[in-house]
């Protein structure tokens, strides 16, 4: 993997759950804080995707993801290597 690719932490988040995602969080694996909702006031409807820059300035590649849906359910995925993927799909 070249250095330019390693520095790229942009990931397309895809929502194929049949539900609307209203919050999305990404935090480095070594923290206990989910930081801020990356979607802000936006939502990610079923079938949609959004590009997110997950670079927090730490140089870390592994992040935990949390998605919150309008029906109140949450999905957490731990240890996602954002330096080696360009897309993550919620199903």
Notes on the structure:
The protein is mostly beta strands. It has a single domain (3-90), classed as Immunoglobulin-like (Sandwich). Helices cover 5% and strands 43% of the residues. The strands form 2 sheets. The protein has a 3-stranded mixed sheet with strand order 3-1-6, with no helix packed on it. Strand 4 (62-69) and strand 5 form a beta hairpin. The radius of gyration is 13 Å and the shape is globular.
Q: What is the name of the CATH class?
A: Mainly Beta
What is the terminal separation in angstroms?
28 Å
- Helicity level, as a percent range? under 10%
- Strand order in the sheet with the most strands: 3-1-6
Question: TL;DR?
Answer:
With 91 residues, this protein is mainly beta.
Name some characteristics of this structure.
91 residues, mainly beta, Immunoglobulin-like, three-stranded mixed sheet, three-stranded antiparallel sheet, 1 helix, globular, disordered N terminus
